[in-house]
C-alpha cells in the first residue's frame, strides 16, 4: 500500500487525523512540516538551521533533550572559537566594544591561515584531512563575522587567553575570541537568532531512525515523542546531534577499556542514537573513532554536566605545577606546549593511571598563577 506523505498542518494540530491513521494499522502518524529538518540543538545544529533559513527554507530543529537542557555539549564550553584574524584592529568590529584604555593596553598578535594550518598539522601529527582543514581555516573569519551578524555577542577572552606583562594584556595560543558568557551565551544567542528567523525548535523529540525513499535517499526522520512514535518527512535532513559520549557502552566499545567510568563534562543526552541511525542508513564512518576530547576534570564533579557551573570543573593550570598519580609518580609533561594544545588529550593520560585519578601540585610561588575561572568555582 502506498502511503502519501502530505502536509497536514502544524504539529500538534494534526495529531487527531494522523493518530487515526496509526490506529487503523498504517503505522506511525506522518507529518511534513519543514523543508529542512535539523537533528540536534547545539552550535553546529543551529549554524545549519540559520543557513537553511537564510536560503528561504522552512526549518525544523528536533532536540532530544527537554528545553532546560538545550544546547548539547556546546552549552558546557567556554565558547572559544579559533579563527584567522589580523590582530586587534581586525577583531574590533566583531567583539563587544573595548574602552580606549583597555584597547591601548592589549597586545593581540595576528593569527594567520598558515599559523592555523601549522597547528592542525602539528597537533594531529599530520593525520588531518587537508580538504577539511582548508574549509575550516579559510572560512573561519567569515564564519565568525556571520555569527556576529546573527546577533551572537563576541569578546576577547582576557580571562583565559591573556597574561599581564608590564601593565599590558598579552594574548597567546591563537585562541583569542569567544562568545560572551561562554557556552551559555553561545546557545542563548543561537536561540534568539533562530526565533527571529522563524526556525521552529521542538524539544523531547528523540530521533531514533531515518526515513528512506527509493534508492536509499533520506526522506525524513523517525522519532520518539512522549512514548509515541512519530515520523516527520522533509526533502533534506541535517544530522548534527553530537556523538556518544554520554553512553558508557559506546564509550567502552569505541574508546577502549575504562572509558565507561569516565565522567561526562556535558549533556547526558548525547547517547549516540542519531549516529547509529546514520550508520544503519549507510553513512560512511570517518575520523578517529578511538580518540576524543578529554581534559583534567575535578574528581568530585557530578557524573554528567552541571548546568550552572558548566565547564568550571576543569583544572587547566597544570603547566605551572606538577601532575602525579596516586603513587606520587609523574606521568606526563606538564609544559610540553601551551595549555591550548595539550589539555584536550591529557584527560586520557589521567584515565590510564591507577584509580583513574591524579593530583595537581602547586607551591606558594605558583599558586597565584592559577586561573581563577578554573579553581575558584563556587
User: How many helical stretches?
Assistant: 13
N-to-C order of helices and strands? HEEHEEHHEHHHEHEEEHEEEEEHHEHEH
How does the helix and strand content classify structurally? alpha/beta
Shape summary? globular
Rg, Å, rounded = 23 Å
- Side-by-side strand order of the widest sheet: 1-13-12-11
Give me the count of strands: 16
Name the beta content range. Answer: 15-25%
Report the average pLDDT across residues: 91
Helix fraction? 25-40%
Q: Stretches where pLDDT falls below 50 for ≥5 residues?
A: 1-26
- Strand count, sense and closure of the main sheet? 4 strands, mixed
End-to-end C-alpha gap: 61 Å
Characteristic terms for this protein:
disordered N terminus; single chain; alpha/beta; four-stranded mixed beta sheet; 16 strands; globular
Amino acid at each position: 500500500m502506498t502511503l502519501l506523505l502530505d502536509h497536514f498542518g502544524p504539529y500538534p494540530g494534526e495529531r487527531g487525523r494522523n493518530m487515526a491513521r496509526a490506529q487503523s494499522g498504517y503505522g506511525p502518524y506522518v507529518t511534513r512540516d519543514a523543508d529542512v529538518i535539523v537533528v540536534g540543538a547545539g552550535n553546529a545544529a543551529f549554524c545549519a538551521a540559520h543557513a537553511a533559513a537564510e536560503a528561504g527554507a522552512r526549518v525544523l530543529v528536533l532536540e532530544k533533550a527537554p528545553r532546560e537542557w538545550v544546547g548539547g555539549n556546546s552549552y558546557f564550553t567556554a565558547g572559544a572559537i579559533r579563527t584567522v584574524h589580523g590582530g586587534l584592529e581586525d577583531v574590533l568590529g566583531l567583539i563587544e566594544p573595548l574602552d580606549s584604555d583597555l584597547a591601548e593596553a592589549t597586545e593581540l598578535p595576528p593569527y594567520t591561515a598558515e599559523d592555523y594550518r601549522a597547528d592542525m598539522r602539528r597537533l594531529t601529527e599530520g593525520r588531518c584531512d587537508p580538504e577539511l582543514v582548508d574549509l575550516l581555516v579559510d572560512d573561519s573569519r567569515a564564519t565568525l563575522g556571520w555569527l556576529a551578524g546573527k546577533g551572537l555577542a563576541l569578546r576577547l577572552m582576557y580571562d583565559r587567553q591573556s597574561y599581564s606583562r608590564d601593565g599590558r594584556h598579552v594574548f597567546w595560543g591563537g585562541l583569542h575570541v569567544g562568545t560572551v558568557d561562554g557556552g551559555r551565551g553561545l546557545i542563548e544567542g543561537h536561540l534568539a537568532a533562530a526565533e527571529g528567523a522563524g526556525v521552529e525548535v521542538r524539544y523531547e523529540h528523540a530521533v531514533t531512525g531515518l526515513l528512506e525513499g527509493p534508492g536509499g535517499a533520506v526522506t525524513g526522520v523517525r522519532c520518539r515523542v512522549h512514548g509515541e512514535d512519530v515520523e516527520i518527512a522533509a526533502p533534506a535532513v541535517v544530522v548534527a546531534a553530537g556523538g556518544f559520549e554520554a553512553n558508557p557502552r559506546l564509550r567502552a566499545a569505541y574508546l577502549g577499556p575504562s572509558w565507561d567510568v569516565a565522567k561526562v563534562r556535558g549533556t547526558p543526552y548525547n547517547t549516540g542514537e542519531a549516529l547509529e541511525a546514520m550508520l544503519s542508513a549507510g553513512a560512511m564512518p570517518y575520523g578517529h573513532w578511538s580518540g576524543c576530547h578529554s581534559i583534567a576534570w575535578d574528581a568530585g564533579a557530578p557524573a554528567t554536566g552541571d548546568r550552572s557551573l558548566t565547564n568550571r570543573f576543569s583544572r587547566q593550570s597544570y603547566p605551572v605545577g606538577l601532575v602525579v598519580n596516586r603513587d606520587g609518580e609523574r606521568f606526563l609533561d606538564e609544559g610540553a606546549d601551551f595549555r591550548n594544545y595539550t589539555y584536550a588529550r591529557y584527560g586520557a593520560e589521567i584515565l590510564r593511571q591507577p584509580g583513574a585519578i591524579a593530583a595537581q601540585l602547586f607551591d606558594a610561588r605558583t599558586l597565584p598563577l592559577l586561573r581563577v575561572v578554573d579553581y575558584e568555582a563556587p
